[in-house]
Design goal:
The protein contains ten helices and eight strands. It is α/β, with parallel strands linked by helices and 267 residues long. The protein has a single domain, classed as Alpha/Beta hydrolase fold, catalytic domain (Rossmann fold). The chain has an eight-stranded mixed β-sheet, with helices on both faces.
Length: 267
């Protein structure tokens, strides 16, 4: 079922089952969930959609003021859930959308009863006593490279983010997704993403939360996942054998198994 052309909302799975909303990361779209949706939809009502500005969403709806912080996308997540009349939602966010999920839960705590954060990073820039994975110079170089040549940036970053060099088709898919993103949206949201600092928001999470950490993740290294686990009250930390930053693509069975184990304990 397609519920909205603005963000291309799609609903699959068992009617009346507990809803699970999946939110993709930077430069991607909902197709990145395709390897996990069939399994999850056997006993959940699975909702996927494209963040405004990405995938098949209406790029004309991308407002730089609204999306000047991650709170704008979090409000969109809440709006999608309310349009569909959802409650008791398991909210799954990947990469920057893990933090968007944290913000959405705080905006509408009545809607969400569990969070799954895949590769979260609340602050990418290293700080005193905090390892984010990047120096200020790293981020400045990353943003400058994106500004100067989006295609070259995508070709360079796709393999780094995906990892799994023995499976180049995965990096090629991610690179193609980055290349398809509207250049203006990519440049703007990259700054919002990589210059954000949402560490203070983690302590406000009030629902059971799973932190999924990948092995050899260049975007959200293990110290970051450990930090998120310590900062989110009562969270569960699982270190996956999956390498890279996108386990739902590269290791869907392991990713689904971890989510199911967590939800079994959660219920």
């Amino acid at each position: 079922m397609v519920a909205s052309s603005r963000d291309d909302v799609r609903v699959t799975g068992a009617a009346g089952a507990r809803p699970m909303v999946l939110v993709h990361g930077f430069g991607c779209d909902q197709s990145m969930w395709r390897n996990v949706v069939p399994d999850l939809a056997t006993d959940h009502r699975v909702v996927t959609f494209d963040l405004v500005g990405f995938g098949s969403s209406d790029v004309r709806a991308y407002d730089r003021e609204r999306y000047g912080t991650l709170h704008g996308h979090a409000a969109d997540v809440v709006a999608v859930c309310r349009r569909l009349g959802l409650s008791d939602v398991v909210l799954v966010g990947h990469s920057v959308s893990a933090i968007i999920a944290v913000l959405a839960q705080q905006q509408a705590p009545e809607l969400f009863t569990a969070l799954v954060l895949i590769g979260p990073n609340p602050r990418y820039v290293d700080d005193d006593g905090y390892t984010g994975g990047f120096s200020r110079a790293d981020i400045r170089g990353l943003l400058d490279a994106l500004d100067s040549n989006q295609l070259a940036w995508s070709a360079a970053m796709g393999p780094v983010i995906m990892g799994n060099p023995d499976r180049p088709e995965l990096a090629e898919e991610l690179t193609s997704s980055f290349c398809r993103t509207d250049p203006g949206v990519a440049r703007h949201f990259a700054r919002v993403t990589f210059l954000s600092d949402n560490r203070a928001d983690l302590g406000g999470v009030t629902v059971p939360t799973l932190v999924l950490q990948c092995t050899d993740d260049a975007i959200a290294p293990e110290p970051v996942g450990r930090y998120v686990h310590q900062a989110v009250p009562g969270s569960t930390f699982v270190h996956l054998a999956a390498t890279g930053h996108c386990p739902h693509l590269s290791a869907p069975a392991e990713t689904v198994a971890a989510i199911r184990a967590f939800l079994g304990a959660d219920r």
